[in-house]
Amino acid sequence: MAEISDKSEEYDGRLPHLRVRQSRRLPRLPSHLVPRPRLLSQLDSGTALTVVRAPLGFGKTTLVLQWLQARPHEQAVWMTVTSDSADSEGFWWGLLDALDDAGFGPRGQDRTRSPRAQVRRALTTSREALTLVIDAFERVSADGIDRDLLDILRAGHDLRLIVCLRSHRSFAAYRTLDLDTTVITPTELLLTVEETSALLDSVGLMASAERAEAIHVDGGGWVEPTRAFAIAQCNSAAAATGSPTDQDAATEVAATYLRQRILPVIEPAQVSFALATSLVDGLSLELAELLAGGSAETQLEQLLADGVLFATEESGQPVYRWPPAARRAMSAELHRRAPDLARDLHGRIAGWYLARGQARKALVHAVSARDWELTVRVIERHWRELLMLHRDALFAALSATPLTAVAGSPRALAVRDLRMQHPDDRVLSVIPTLPEGHEQLHTIGQSEEAIEVLETGLAMVAMLRRRGLLARARDLSDRLEVIAGAARATRTRELNGMLPSFLHQIGITRLLADDLPGALGVLHAAYDDAALSLLTYVQADIPGKLALALALAGEAKEADVWLQRHQDARKEEGWVRRRIDNTAGTARALLALERLDLDQASEAIESIAGDPGTEEFWAFATYTRAMIALYQGDVFGGLRAIDRARASYPTWWGEGTTARVLLASVEADLLLALGRGNQARAALRAGGIDHPWLRVNIARLLLNAGRPQEALDEIARTDWARRAERRQHLDMLLVEAVAYHRLGQPEAAADALGRTLSAAEASGSRRAFATVPRDELLMVAARLPARRRSWLGAAGLDDHPYLYPEPVELVELTDREQLVLQHLAAGARVHEIAAHLYVSVNTIKTHLRSIYGKLGAANRRDAVANARRLGLFLDA
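Now predict its structure.
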C-alpha cells in the first residue's frame, strides 16, 4: 500500500520554472499531476479575490501550485499558515516575513510597530502587481483577520488574494459582495472521470475506460486518496491482470486516509457524531439532529471548520456531505467500533426517510438496520415506486429479508414474486378473496380498509399478470375497480395519489386480457388523472399504451396523437424507459405497417429491446414482427418468430388473453400465404374461432378457398360486427366487396368498396388493400366515381403484391377423421386404429372412405401425400 502523501511537506527553493520573487518555503508538488484546465481557467480569471474552499485531500494546494507553475511571470508571495502563525500576532509577523523574503516587504522590519500595519503599508503602496497566496487559512484561530485582509485587498490597487482553506468560518460570502470574487467549491475540485483516467495513465496504470469509470465511482473523485490508490495499484501485481478488487483497494486507501488524516483533525468529543453522520449521503440539519439526539448545528459547524465535511445548498437549505470514499470509510469504522449503535442509527434514518416518502433510502437503511418488520413496511407502502424505479435496491432488500418476515404480508409476497422472478405457490394461497356482488364491493370501498385492500389487490393483479394468469388478474381488477369507484366518493384525498397508477394497471390488465375497449376507457381516465400521480413513469407510460391500443383498433390518426404525447413526455431512464419505449415502438411499427411503410415498420420493431420471458407486451411485438414478415414475403420468418415467443412465454397465451387471439390471427394469415388452408383453420380454432378478430380470418380463408357465399355468411353475423373494431371492419369490408364481385353482384361490391374507402381515408390505413387481389379490386373500383377511386392510385399499392395464393384448397375433416388420418400417417393398420379409438373396424373403414373421398385419394399412400400437401398435419 502506498503511503498517504502529506501535501503540507515543504522544501527550500523555487518551483521548477517559477522565476519570480517569492517566499523561501513552498509546498512540494506531488508526483503524477493531472492537467485541470477547467479549474485553472477560473484562477486565470484574475478576480481580486479567489477562495478555494474544500475539505482535506481535495487538491487545493496542488491546484494553485499548478497554476503558478504555468505562469512563470506571475509575481507571487506564498504563505502557509502554521501553528506558529495561527494567532493574530503570529499571522501578521509570518505574512510580513513572507513578503520580506520575496522582496515586497518594508525595508528593515520595525519590531516596535504593528506587523499588521506594516503588511498593510507594504501591500497598498507597492507599485508592482502582486498575487498573495495564503494556504491552510483554516488554522487561523484569531477572529477578524479575514476582514483585515479584505480591507487591505480593497485598498491595494494591483493586489490579488488567493486563499486556500477548509472551513466556512472565514471569508463568508456576505463580506465579499463588493469584491470581484471567484469561489472554487469542493464539487468542482472533485476529479472528473476523464481526470481520473488521466491520473491512472500518469502513474502507469493503463486502465480501460470501463475500469477508469469504476475507479472514479469508487473514489468519488476524491483527489489525494485516488492518487494514492492509483500508485498502490500500479505497484501491485494485481494491476497487471485487471484485478476485480478495485473497490476493496479503494476502500482500504480511504480507510488509511481516514486514520492518518481525517480522524486526527476531529476533536475527540466529535468523533462519535462524525462517524454517525457518515451513514447518510447528504445530511440535512434535521436528520443530523435525529442522529445526535438533540441539537447538531454547532457540531456540524465544527466539522465544517475542521475541513472534513463540506456543505452545499439545496432548496435553500444546507446539506452536509463527506467525500464519497471518506463516507464509506467512516461508515465502516462506525460499524467496526459500535455495530449495535450503527444498526440503531440506520433504523432511525429509515424511519425518518419513510415518514418523508423517500422509499429507496428508507429501504436501504431498514435493511442495514436488519429491521425486517420495518423493511416489509417500506415495501408495503412504496411497492410500486420500488418496483419501477428502484429495482436493484428492492432486489437486495428482498434477498436479505428472511422469507418468514415477508410471509406475513400478502402484498410483500406479491412484490417478492414480481421482483425475484422465482415464483412459488405461497403467494397464490394469500390472494384476497373479494365478493362478487356490486353492493358488497361498494361497501368495502366505503370502509376504512379500502385503500389497503386496493394496494394489496393491485399488487396481486400485477403478480397474476406476471405469471400469465390473465383471466384471474382481470377478474380481480374488475372487482377492485368497483371498490375504487366507491372509495373515490368518500376517501378522495387518500385515493387521489394512487388513482392514476391504479387505473394505469387496470388498463394494462385489460389490454393484455382481451378487453381492448375496456382498456381504452380506463387508460383515458388514467391519463386525465395522471397529474395527480407521484410517479412520473405513470404519466410517461400511458400515452404509449393508448397509442398501441388505438393502433390495434385501427384508429391510426388518434394513435399518432398519442405517440406524439409519448414523445413529449418526460421519461425515466434505464429499465423503466425501455419498457415505456418498447410499447410505443410496437405502436409505431403497427402504424407504419398500416401505411405500408415496411422500412419504417421494420426499424421501429427492431428498436425494441426486452428480456425473453419477462416482457409483458411480448405478444404485441411478436404479432407486429410476424405481420411485417408476412408483408415482406418472409412467411417462415414470421412463423419462427411466433414459435420462439410461445416457447419463451408458455403460460401467457391461454384462454382469455390478447396474446392467444393476436398470435392465432397472424399465424392463420401466414399459413394462408403458404396455401395451407386447413392449418390456418386449425390455428384459428386454437385461438377461439368466435372472436371478432378471428372471424375476419375465417371470412378471408373462405373467400380464398373459392367460397364467396360462405364468406358473406360470416360477414352477415351481427355478433362479431358489434364487438369488432375499425380495423376488423375495414378488412371485412374488402372481403365483402370481392365476394360480391365473384358472385356477380357489382353494385353490392361497389357499395362495400366505397364504404371501405371512406373508412380507410378516415383512418389513413392502406395495409388492408394488399389482402385482396389487385385486379378484382380495380374492377370493382371502376364502378365508383373517379374522385372516390383516386385514393387507390395514390395509396402506393403497386409495390405491394397480393399476399395470398388462390385458390386455397380447404378440406373439411371431422375431428374423428382427423384422428384417423393421424394414425394412418403413422403407419397404423385398420384394426390397430379401431382398437386405439375404441370403435369397430367397420367404423374405421367408413371414416377411411370419407377421408379418401375428400382428399381425392384411392389408397392410404395417396391420402397421406395429399393430406401433407394440403397442410392437414399440424406438425407439417
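Residues 433-534 form one domain.
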